[in-house]
C-alpha cells in the first residue's frame, strides 16, 4: 500500500456516543467537548446531534456553530438527519450547521420491513430530501444504515441504491456496521469491492464494537482504502460502543503508516473530559487512556527502565502527554522503589531501602493498595521517625445528624506545631476541611482543587468492610490522586486528604 496516504477521522462522541445507555450531555458540555475535539485534538469532522431531537439540542448546536463560524470550523460540523423532505433540513439550517448526514436504508430488509417501501420509492424520497437540502445550501453525506447486513444478504439492493445516488453531488457515502457483526476480512473484502465498483465515491466506514473488533475492523477498512473512519472518545456508543478514537488513530499511524491530523498529546485530556461529562468511567486498563496503562507493576520492568529502556515500545507515555509510574505492591522490586524515591526526591540508605521493600511486599500480600504517595508514611513507620510524617491527626471527633450541620473538632500536628481547631459544614468531610482552614493558613499551606471524590467498598463487601476513598486533586497543570482506607468513609476521605498534605509538606522542604 502507498506510503504517507492520509485518512480522515470523523468523531461522533456527541451523536452516536450520546446513544450510550445513561449518557446525556448538558448543552454547555456538548459545546465544550465539540470545541476541544476540533481545536485541541484537531479531529477532521465531528457529528454533534440528531436533527429534530429537542429545542435544548438545537440551542446547543447553535452555540457550537456560532463559535465555529468565527473560528473557521463550521465546515467540520455535521448533523444526522432523516429522509423527511423538509423537516430535518429546516432544523439543521436553523441550528446554523451546514452539513446533513442523511440516514438512508442500506439493506433490503430495513427498506421493506421497516419503511414498507420498494427501493424505487425509497430512492425517490431520498432524492427529494437531497435536492431540498442542496437548495438550502447544505452539503450532503449519506449513511446506508444496516449496510453490513445489506451487503451480506442483499448486495444487489446496495449496488442499485449507491448507483442511483452517486451522481447527486453527495460528499461522503458512510457505510455502517450497525450491529457490529463484521470481522476484519469481511470488512476488507466488502469495502474493496465497493471501492472498485464506485471508484469516484468517497466511502467512510462506521464500525461498532459488539465483537470487540471495532479497532481491527477500522484497520481493515483503512487498508481497503476508505477516505474516513468514524469513532468516538472512550468507545462511547450503544451496546458495546463504537470504535475508540485513541486506539484507531494510534493503530493507523503505527501499523499502517497513515497520516492523521490528530494531536496525540491531547487524547488523554479529552478522554478525561468526556469521562467526567458522560459519567462513564474508563476502565483502568483501557489502551492509551486508562489510568494504569503506563504503570509498571513488575519489578523486572522497572529494573529494565532503570538500566536504560529495555522494555520500550512506540506507546510511550510522553507521546500522549502522560508520565510513566511504578506501582508498589508485592511485585515491586528494588528498582521500583528507587524510581519512586527519585521521583519524590527522598534519599534513604540501602539498608532502609531493603526494609522498605520488605514492608511494601508484606502490605501487598495483605492486598492493600499502595501508591507512591503512601511512601513517606511507610518510611516514617519503618524508621520510627517523624522525618517523613510532616502532618499527623492527633485527635478528631465529628458529629453529624439528620437535618443538622456537621461539626468537626481536631487536634493536628504540622511539623512540630500542634493546633486545635474546629469547623462546621455540609457533612462530616466538609466540616473537617473547614477545621483545617486555620492550621493550613498558619502554616502557609494551600489546598489544591478537589476535582473528584470517589468512595468504594471492595466488591462483595459487607456493611462493616473497609471503605477506600480516592481523591483526585488538581494543582497548576498537574493532576494527582491520593487514597485513604478506613472502616468509616469520612475518615477514609480525611486520610486521603492528610496524605496529600504530607506530600505537599515534603515537597516544600
Ligand atoms: Zn452507529
Automatic annotation (TrEMBL):
Protein name from the UniProt record: Homocitrate synthase
Family: Belongs to the alpha-IPM synthase/homocitrate synthase family.
Record's function text: This protein is a Fe-Mo-cofactor biosynthetic component.
Domain Pyruvate carboxyltransferase, first and last residues per copy: 7-268
Catalytic activity reported: acetyl-CoA + 2-oxoglutarate + H2O = (2R)-homocitrate + CoA + H(+)
Enzyme Commission number(s) of this protein: 2.3.3.14
PANTHER family: HOMOCITRATE SYNTHASE, ISOPROPYLMALATE_HOMOCITRATE_CITRAMALATE SYNTHASE FAMILY PROTEIN
GO terms, biological process: L-leucine biosynthetic process
Signal peptide, first to last residue: none
Transmembrane portions of the chain: none
Pfam families: HCS_D2, HMGL-like, LeuA_dimer
SUPFAM superfamilies: 2-isopropylmalate synthase LeuA, allosteric (dimerisation) domain, Aldolase
Highest taxon of the lineage: Bacteria
InterPro entries, per database record: 2-isopropylmalate_synth_dimer, AIPM/Hcit_synth_CS, Aldolase_TIM, LeuA/HCS_post-cat, LeuA_allosteric_dom_sf, PYR_CT
Broad EC category: transferase
GO molecular function (one): homocitrate synthase activity
Keywords: Acyltransferase, Amino-acid biosynthesis, Branched-chain amino acid biosynthesis, Leucine biosynthesis, Transferase
Native species: Agarivorans albus MKT 106
